[in-house]
Design brief:
Blueprint (H helix, E strand, L loop, with lengths): L7 H4 L12 H11 L3 H32 L5 H50 L2 H5 L3 H43 L1 H8 L2 H36 L2 H9 L3 H53 L5 H22 L1 H19 L21 E9 L42 E10 L4 E5 L6 H7 L8 E6 L2 E2 L5 H7 E4 L10 H6 L7 H10 L3 H6 L17 H15 L3 E5 L7 H15 L3 E5 L3 H6 L2 E6 L2 E6 L1 H7 L2 H10 L3 H8 L1
């Protein structure tokens, strides 16, 4: 009976319009990744030749056994043939184990190379890229696409070569035995293709629906089983509703899975019947040849064995173009990421910052949140995986990244010019959406200005190395983030070589050491996903301690004390005065105490600096700052007056 290729029927589920296309330039680039393993690949091909050759010997042994050894009662020859039947699978099995080792080494090596190249490139991408790209899409590129690309080298190409060699060698031997029977055996192959095409039209639609329903179910799990989603479900009491929604989606996956299994089983039965017909025809005609004395019984037995070995690889080769293209195109999706242009790039002759004073200058800076198509990942059709679709509505339409994604206000910063002297404390105030956060993001070069320059000690940020710039700037962002690891590991992220004494000193400065010391595991306490085991104020003080441990020349604090209670804030404000001493500091200020201590206050509105000066000067103007003071800061006056006096 035919050894049917296990994945062959699946490939017929794709319509002609879905078949991926492969260019020669893509193939050459794929071969480039296989080049480091060319010696192993050559050795792998040699083992394929060996196993194929050994597989062709067994039917010849059966022919010799039936036609010569048994009729001649040759005991010695019988013993040798029996020994051969034992040794061939032993030797072939050993070679196949080594073949699998070579195959895995090549495949896993390619995965390693691709993942490292991808991850390295993604780490170089600008913040703009991550704000406009789905995390799930990035994970899919690093996992699904990389694994599919690995299969192209270690599985698909190897299988195609193996099947090709097997078909050629088997046909050669069969033709030497009887060319008419060989042609008769091959004639049934068109029936395989015809049946597969017809059944494939049905299976294709079922498979497409199955992928859609699987994607919807997976999207719902991704949305509702992470910590934020689970919290939302509990807060709104929607557990029963979500379970019911999941039951509906899971039932669709179940039903279509049963339908696909039944139709697939019917398909296999029909294919087996066709292969049985082909085998029966060969034995029928071969039987007549035996009766006529054209060839021996042993020959027809050997021919039947070769026929079984031929059908599987021959049918698999009919699917080879689609198999090959599907696997190779996974490289295209990987290469798309690697080829994305770097928005924040480092010049070859970039300057390494040393002995930084901390002078920051904005020279006619304009910034627009413009997203270009060439800086985004395209929405791709994955042929063997489930694309994540919208979780709540279940609508996967119009999910492609858009090249026209912008902020509500197109121009985030407009012609900003400002100079902060070394050691100054600059407070940024203004209504929500005024551009304060965008202003601070330009200082560590998370973005580059659309127009104008940002300078540090007279050097354009685009002329200095990214590493030396990062070493000089410490930033506490609006949204605190901690790794799912210990407090010590999170703190050491600032300085990998920091001692325990230095860690504790930074935590004391941030008023968090006593809290950490009171924990059962102290600094070895695991903070949980995104630090959810800590309160908002505790997380902010941890992130502030991390920046203090870094000891940068320039500080950027984005609402760094907004979640602190009054007692903690009073202590941390005192610590901040010591930390900011001698450093250039930019603070998005929501506390009057910070504003009063500032050397200069920048009042921002709609992306522009509309007012600047000290607290008294700005109050005297009677403009936006005075209005903000009356509506937001006056009620803090009494709380800070004692510390000011």
């Amino acid at each position: 009976m035919m050894m049917f290729h296990s994945g062959g029927w699946f490939n017929y589920m794709r319509s002609d319009t879905q078949k991926p296309h492969v260019s020669w330039s893509l193939i050459k680039r794929v071969l480039h990744y296989a080049r480091p393993y060319r010696r192993l690949i050559i050795l792998l091909l040699f083992t394929i030749l060996l196993t194929t050759g050994l597989g062709l010997i067994t039917p010849l042994i059966f022919r010799d056994l039936i036609d010569y050894t048994l009729p001649n009662r040759d005991t010695n020859r019988l013993n040798l043939l029996a020994l051969g039947l034992i040794l061939i699978p032993i030797v072939s099995g050993g070679i196949r184990v080594y073949q699998r080792y070579l195959n895995a080494t090549i495949g896993e090596g390619v995965i390693y190379d691709l993942r490292v190249a991808l991850y390295d490139h993604l780490q170089k991408m600008s913040l703009r890229f991550f704000t406009n790209t789905k995390t799930g899409e990035l994970m899919s590129r690093l996992n699904n696409d990389v694994v599919d690309a690995q299969r192209a080298i270690s599985n698909t190409i190897v299988e195609i070569i193996t099947n090709f060699i097997t078909v050629i060698a088997t046909l050669a031997v069969m033709l030497t035995l009887e060319w008419r029977l060989t042609i008769l055996g091959v004639l049934v192959l068109p029936f395989f293709i015809l049946i597969a095409r017809r059944v494939g039209n049905v299976l294709r639609e079922i498979a497409r629906d199955q992928m859609k329903h699987n994607a919807m179910m997976n999207a719902m799990m991704n949305e509702t089983l992470n910590i934020s989603g689970a919290l939302l479900v509990k807060l709104f009491g929607r557990r029963k509703m979500e379970v019911q929604r999941f039951e509906e989606r899971a039932s669709k996956v179940r039903d279509i899975g049963v339908q696909r299994a039944v139709i697939g089983a019917q398909f296999f039965v029909v294919i087996m019947l066709v292969s049985a017909m082909g085998t029966a025809l060969v034995y029928w005609m071969g039987g007549h040849f035996v009766l006529n004395g054209t060839f021996t019984i042993g020959t027809i037995v050997a021919f039947g064995s070769y026929l079984t070995q031929l059908y599987g690889p021959l049918q698999a080769l009919t699917n080879a173009p689609v198999d090959f293209a599907t696997s190779i195109v996974s490289f295209e999706r990987v290469f798309e990421v690697i080829d994305l242009p770097l928005e924040i790039s480092e010049k070859p002759n970039a300057i390494s910052l040393e002995n930084v004073a901390g002078e920051i200058t904005f020279d006619h800076v304009t910034f627009i949140y413009e997203v270009k198509a060439e800086n985004l990942l395209s929405s791709v059709q994955r042929y063997n995986t489930d694309d994540v679709q919208t979780a709540l509505s279940g609508d996967g339409e119009n999910n492609a990244p858009s090249a026209n994604i912008t902020q509500a206000r197109e121009i985030a910063l407009n012609n900003i010019s400002f100079k902060a002297e070394a050691g100054q404390l600059v407070a940024l105030v203004g209504p929500s959406g005024a551009g304060k956060t965008t202003f601070t993001y330009l200082i560590p070069r998370l973005y580059d200005p659309t127009e104008g320059r940002v300078l540090i000690d007279g050097h354009d940020l685009r002329d200095v190395t990214l590493e030396s710039l990062a070493n000089q700037i410490g930033m506490v962002t609006q949204e605190t983030y901690l790794f799912h690891d210990t407090l010590r590991t999170n703190l050491l992220y600032a300085r990998l070589d920091a001692t325990q004494e230095e860690i504790e000193a930074a935590c004391r400065a941030a008023n968090i050491h006593d809290f950490i010391a009171s924990l059962p595991n102290g600094y070895d306490t695991v903070v949980g996903e995104r630090g959810y085991r800590l309160s908002g104020g505790e997380k902010q003080r941890i992130t502030l301690a991390r920046v203090i441990l870094k000891n940068p020349r320039i500080l950027v604090l984005d609402e760094a004390t907004s979640s602190l209670d009054s007692q903690s804030e009073a202590l941390i404000q005192e610590a901040l005065k010591r930390v900011m001493a001698g450093r250039t500091s930019f603070v998005i200020a929501h506390r009057l105490s910070t504003i009063l201590a500032a050397d200069v206050i920048l009042v921002m509105n709609r992306g522009e600096i509309v007012e600047r000066g000290t607290h008294k000067e700005l109050l005297a103007l009677g403009g936006i700052y005075a209005n903000l003071y009356e509506t937001q800061f006056r009620n803090q006056q009494h709380a800070v007056s004692q510390s000011v006096n």
